[in-house]
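Protein record
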Amino acid sequence: MIARHGRPRLFFALLPDRETISNIRFHAAQCSPDTGNLVAAHNYHITLLFLGHLDPQQGEALCTDCDSINLPPFSLTIDTPGWWQKAGIFWLGPATTPAALNTLHDTLTRMAMRRQLVPDRHRFVPHITLMRQVQHPPQYPVVKPFTWRAERFSLMQSDLRPQGVRYTEIAAWPLTGSGVQR
C-alpha cells in the first residue's frame, strides 16, 4: 500500500528472481571495492519508469490503470557492462532491448502521461546498477551472459534511510494481463 504520509518517490521496475540475483551477484563480486559503492542485492532491479514524488491518490490511480495492462512475459539477455561517468554508475544490461520490454516501458509512459504525470524524459536504457559513486573508469568484469525472465512488473517506493536507500515493492502485476498482486 502506498504511504499515506508525504509524497513518496515511486517508480515502476522489474525485480529479479533468485537465479537472476545470483547471476548479478556473480558479476558484482568481480568489481573492485575501491571503485565505488556496491548496490545491496535486495535493491537489484531494472527501472521501467521513474515517477518521482507522487501523492497517494496519484499512486492509487496508477495502480488501477495497471490492472488493465495485458502484456506477455518476456526474456532479456544481460550481456553488456557500462559506466555512466556523470551519474557515477557502473551497470549491466542487455546489448539489445527486447521489443516486449520497450512495449512495457512505452505503455507505462503513456499511462503516466494520461494522468498528467511527467515521467523521466531520458532515453530508456534498461540496466541493473552494480555500483554507485564510481568516479573513474572501472575495470569491466568478464560478462558471463545470463537470461532474465520477466514475468511481472512492480510499483516501487524509494526510501532514503541513514544506512542508504531502500526500495520497497508496493504492488505487482503479472505479465499475462490477468490478476493483480497488491
About this structure: The first strand starts at residue 9 and ends at 14. Helices lie at 18-28, 56-66, 99-114. The domain at 9-174 is CATH 3.90.1140.10 (Cyclic Phosphodiesterase; Chain: A,). The CA atoms of residues 10 and 157 lie 5 Å apart.
